[in-house]
């Protein structure tokens, strides 16, 4: 019985033997389904990557054409599947809003298939050991990572785009003169194609040296007798079919929850100091109030989406470093959300557009057409705005103030193995997400800074809702699905799971990459930094084999 990987599972190197070269380059499609393998098949590679999300894809792309042999293991297929999605179910025992199923995806491209595409680099201060933030500090600096951020920007096609007040210059808008000791302006830039599975599927199909194994779930890492080196990865399909992959190096790019879970399932590899799964972080979000203003245009133009092909931009307000130091808070962002009312013609038009785009039957198609007809003059004005690069908008029914804050690293915020088992028979992840007092204080201080600045500038009155309970604790926080911190980076094995090169301390051939290695999360959307770390790791792995 032949295998789908026969003739290229060991990825022979071109070494002057023309027959060997021909066999390598004619080995067929490079996307292989687990169901095409023989049960208990043995595969070989130089590098095995677990996960095809942003980190895994960025790493694999950097390895293209290097002459090495790479296998990417992806738990899902080319499209999302409800059966495979059951593997994401777990136990949440801490603060609500973790989104273990909503924020993860088992499909080619991983969580990038859920990502809106916002790119923003970490601040230089996010890497520093801040005296008022326990557990902060990276073993690498902002300057160390910056060359790889530049390459990650090219990867996401956002190179040269502004992340600050310069975003308004092409639209002839002046920034509001915020007090720079309190608030600064920043802007996220959207990548034109966030779904990396769609974007790189053809690239991997044509690759001679990167093989993607689909619908193959990593279940165990095997190590030598002393547990000092990883020797193989065991993978399993939903039909129970198993395979073993041997490689020189294994890189876990499966996300902060799954990276920790796989290490814990593998007899606690890397967990000598009981650090695997600890310091789990997200970016807590909370709506703290609304902005009342007689002239919403100044806010609408600046703080709603802006368009300049092929990019979108979203300007926001960030906590100034001086404010962070003075009030001993974390980093954080305030943004405005404009609600035009579900009954408006604008929202009706958006619903019909989304239904057409997804080829679904609109739920209120007839009524939405009536709403569009009623508000047609306003929709014409909204379209005129859009042609000039502004977000299509009418008069907002409500302007909400939303906070998006960094979390203080907390040892007790963690991922464990739960009591339930998944469809493959392995214990699920149990997430105990902690939202602490400093996180809440950060949101409070930033909200008050926005209120005071808007009042000083006369642009609006911020009215707070009851988002704190009687004891001052937060209610209404939800996660952003920016999972970080469970295999944190540190030069000291007593303080982190991986070193500055993302190598697991004390275990040869094992690496973690992605948000799980962030010692402190900062407040930026983490995907750009995750890709930068993956590109940096690719260079390191290449240097090791040079």
CATH homolog superfamily of the largest domain: FAD/NAD(P)-binding domain
Task: Assign an overall shape.
Answer: globular
End-to-end separation in angstroms reads: 37 Å
What is the CATH architecture descriptor of the largest domain? Answer: 3-Layer(bba) Sandwich
Q: What number of structural domains do the residues give?
A: 3
Oligomeric nature of the chains = single chain
Largest sheet report: 8 strands, mixed
- CATH fold category name of the largest domain: FAD/NAD(P)-binding domain
Q: With helices defined by DSSP (H or I, 4 residues minimum), what is the helix count?
A: 13
In round numbers, the mean pLDDT is 91
Low-confidence stretches: 1-28
What class do helices, strands and sheet pairing give? alpha/beta
Rg, Cα atoms, Å: 24 Å
The helix content is 25-40%
- Just give the CATH class of the largest domain: Alpha Beta
In terms of DSSP E residues, the strand content is: 15-25%
Total E-strand runs: 19
Key structural traits:
FAD/NAD(P)-binding domain, globular, 21% strand, 8-stranded mixed β-sheet, 546 residues, 3 domains, alpha/beta, 8-stranded antiparallel β-sheet, disordered N terminus
List the helices and strands and how they pair.
Elements: H1 18-25, E1 31-33, E2 41-50, H2 54-63, E3 70-73, H3 82-85, E4 91-92, E5 118-119, H4 142-155, E6 183-190, H5 196-206, E7 210-214, E8 217-223, E9 230-236, E10 242-252, H6 256-265, E11 285-292, H7 297-303, E12 306-308, E13 311-319, H8 321-327, E14 332-339, H9 345-357, H10 365-374, H11 376-387, E15 398-405, E16 414-421, E17 427-432, H12 437-457, E18 461-464, E19 510-512, H13 527-545
Parallel strand pairs: 1-7, 2-3, 2-10, 3-7, 4-17, 10-19
Antiparallel strand pairs: 5-6, 6-13, 8-9, 9-10, 11-15, 11-18, 12-13, 13-14, 14-15, 16-17
Helix pairs in contact: 2-13, 4-13, 9-10
């Amino acid at each position: 019985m032949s295998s789908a990987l026969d003739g290229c599972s060991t990825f022979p190197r071109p070494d002057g033997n023309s027959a060997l070269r021909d066999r390598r380059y004619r080995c067929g499609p490079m996307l292989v389904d687990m169901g095409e393998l023989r049960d208990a098949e043995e595969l070989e590679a130089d590098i095995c990557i677990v996960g095809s999300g942003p980190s895994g894809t960025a790493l694999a792309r950097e390895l293209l054409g290097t002459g090495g042999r790479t296998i990417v293991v992806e738990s899902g297929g080319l499209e999302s599947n409800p059966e495979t999605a059951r593997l994401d179910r777990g136990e949440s025992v801490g603060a609500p809003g973790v989104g273990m199923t909503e924020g993860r995806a088992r499909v080619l491209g991983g969580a990038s298939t859920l990502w809106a595409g916002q790119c923003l680099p970490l601040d230089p201060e996010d890497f520093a050991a801040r005296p008022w933030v326990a557990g902060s500090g990276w073993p690498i600096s902002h300057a160390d990572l910056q060359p790889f951020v530049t390459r990650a920007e090219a990867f996401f096609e956002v190179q040269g785009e502004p992340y600050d007040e310069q975003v308004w210059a092409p639209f002839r808008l002046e920034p509001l003169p915020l007090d720079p000791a309190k608030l600064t302006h920043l802007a996220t830039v959207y990548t034109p194609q966030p779904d990396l599975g769609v974007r790189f599927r053809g690239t991997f199909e044509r690759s001679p040296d990167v093989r993607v194994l689909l619908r193959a779930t990593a279940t165990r890492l095997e190590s030598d007798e002393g547990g000092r080196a990883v020797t193989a990865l065991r993978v399993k399909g939903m039909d129970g079919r198993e395979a073993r992959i041997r490689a020189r190096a294994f890189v876990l790019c499966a996300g902060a929850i799954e990276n920790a879970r796989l290490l814990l399932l593998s007899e606690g590899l890397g967990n000598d100091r009981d650090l695997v799964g600890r310091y789990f972080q997200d970016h807590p979000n909370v709506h703290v109030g609304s902005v009342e203003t007689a002239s919403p245009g100044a806010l609408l133009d600046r703080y709603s989406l802006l368009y300049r092909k092929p990019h979108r931009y979203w300007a926001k307000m960030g906590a100034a470093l001086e404010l962070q130091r003075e009030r001993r808070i974390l980093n954080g962002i305030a943004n405005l959300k404009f609600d035009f009312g579900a009954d408006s013609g604008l929202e009706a038009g958006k619903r019909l557009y989304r239904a057409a785009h997804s080829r679904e039957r609109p739920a209120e198609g007839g009524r939405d057409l009536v709403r569009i007809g009623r508000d047609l003059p306003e929709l014409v004005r909204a379209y005129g705005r859009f042609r000039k690069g502004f977000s299509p908008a009418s008069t907002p029914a409500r302007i909400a103030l939303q906070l998006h804050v960094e979390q203080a690293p907390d040892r007790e915020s963690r991922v464990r193995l739960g009591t339930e088992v998944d469809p493959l028979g392995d214990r699920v992840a149990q997430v105990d997400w902690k939202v602490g007092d400093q996180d809440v204080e950060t949101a409070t201080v930033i909200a008050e800074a926005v209120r005071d600045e808007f009042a000083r500038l006369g642009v609006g009155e911020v009215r707070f809702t009851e988002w704190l309970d009687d004891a001052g604790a937060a209610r209404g926080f939800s996660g952003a699905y920016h999972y970080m911190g469970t295999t944190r980076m540190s030069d000291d094995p007593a303080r982190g799971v991986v070193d500055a090169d993302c190598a697991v301390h004390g275990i040869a051939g094992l690496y973690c990459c992605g948000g799980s290695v962030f010692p402190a999360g900062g407040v930026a959307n983490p995907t750009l930094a995750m890709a930068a770390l993956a590109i940096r790791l690719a260079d390191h792995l290449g240097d090791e084999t040079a």
